[in-house]
Amino acid sequence: MKKILVTGGLGYIGSHTVVELQNSGFEVVIIDNLSNTTFDVLDKITSITSIKPEFVQIDLKNKKDVLQFFKNYTVDGVIHFAASKAVGESVEQPLMYYENNITTLTYVLQGMNANNVSNFIFSSSCTVYGQADELPITENAPTKPAESPYGATKKMGEIIIEDTSKVTDLRAIALRYFNPIGAHETAKIGELPLGVPQNLIPYVVQTAAGIRECLSIFGDDYPTPDGTAIRDYIHVVDLAKAHIAALNRLLNKENKAKCEFFNIGTGTGSSVLEVVKAFEKATGKKVNYKIVDRRTGDITAAYADTTLANKELGWKAKLSLEEGLASSWKWQESLLNVNL
Ligand code: UFG
């Protein structure tokens, strides 16, 4: 049985990926510092898969702990999710973002290198493309200057990994996620809300639940058919499965370069208004909304060309936008029931 380290394995995408890893026959050890999640996610994962993943609570900012982990544990690969991800917060606290996302990455790579662990999957983002000149976006599209320190950490992360792969045994795949949505079908794991949501789907869901009064749609004067901005919303379970495909590519030595990059999206763009309508259709719930000014830093449209991931990883998104939105709603309902 292959053993995989999942950093940030109790987070949103991490927890769904741990479930898929266990379902695919991998043994999992999770590192998490619980900075943006709760310990009970471990029990939820266990109740879905009937297998308790090993859990090590260390903070990746502690270099000594990271290096000691790799001495103590023999792993066949690393999937590295642990990072901060709020765009606005990163503008306010750039140094925290560079420490949380970049310093930690260098420690993990050093720990791997010192202990001959060579297979590495990195959580990257479509944010590296900025507003691409052509749609859909292929992996060959040029990367653009980052709009935020968060975006910069994803760009820099890719550079650090590629540079390291040139001079060590590191074999890496960076997955450039488009917009992850949804939750596990059991509604036992999902995205944990923390304060006022910054992202569209959590805001839509909380508005439908009556927690927020009204969704603000940021701009209806974009050059798109209905004037609202377009994104590629991918179900988190499909996204989790892309990690298994990427990992198997590395373990089977099928990679064609030391460091590879893949877009992970559905290939379909949806506007903000389309998302609101799809949510109402999928759940029967009404979403109050108003149009307000554009949000600084937002781009007009981004959706993936997934040809490369389909062909090379043998992976394709299967779940629809409606399924993603319905699962987000089911997850929200389970949170409300807990709070009653
Ligand atoms: N939106 C609203 N109202 C809201 C929240 C979002 O209208 O309350 C709109 C945004 O303007 C955008 C779309 O919904 O058009 C999606 O917004 P999200 O915040 O959900 O997602 P983004 O596309 O802005 O975020 C993505 C990635 C981030 C990355 C960012 C870079 O998820 O990881 O792009 O710009 F940092």
Summarize the structure.
The chain folds into two domains: 3-184 and 234-266 and 305-319, NAD(P)-binding Rossmann-like Domain (Rossmann fold, 3-Layer(aba) Sandwich); 200-229 and 268-302 and 325-339, UDP-galactose 4-epimerase, domain 1 (Alpha-Beta Complex), CATH 3.90.25. The protein has eleven helices and 13 strands.
Question: What is the CATH class designation of the largest domain?
Answer: Alpha Beta
Along the chain, the helix and strand elements come as EHEHEHEHHEHEEHEEEHEEHEHH
What is the end-to-end distance?
Answer: 42 Å
> How much of the residues is beta strand, in percent?
15-25%
Mean pLDDT: 97
In the CATH hierarchy, the architecture of the largest domain is 3-Layer(aba) Sandwich
Strand segment count: 13
Gyration radius, in Å: 19 Å
As for the number of domains, it is 2
Indicate the percent of residues in helices: 40-55%
Low-confidence sequence ranges: none
Structural class of the secondary structure composition?
A: alpha/beta
Oligomeric category: single chain
Shape: globular
CATH topology of the largest domain: Rossmann fold
Strand order of the largest sheet: 3-2-1-4-5-6-11
How would a textbook summarize the main sheet?
Answer: 7 strands, parallel
Total helical segments: 11
| CATH level-four homologous superfamily name of the largest domain | NAD(P)-binding Rossmann-like Domain
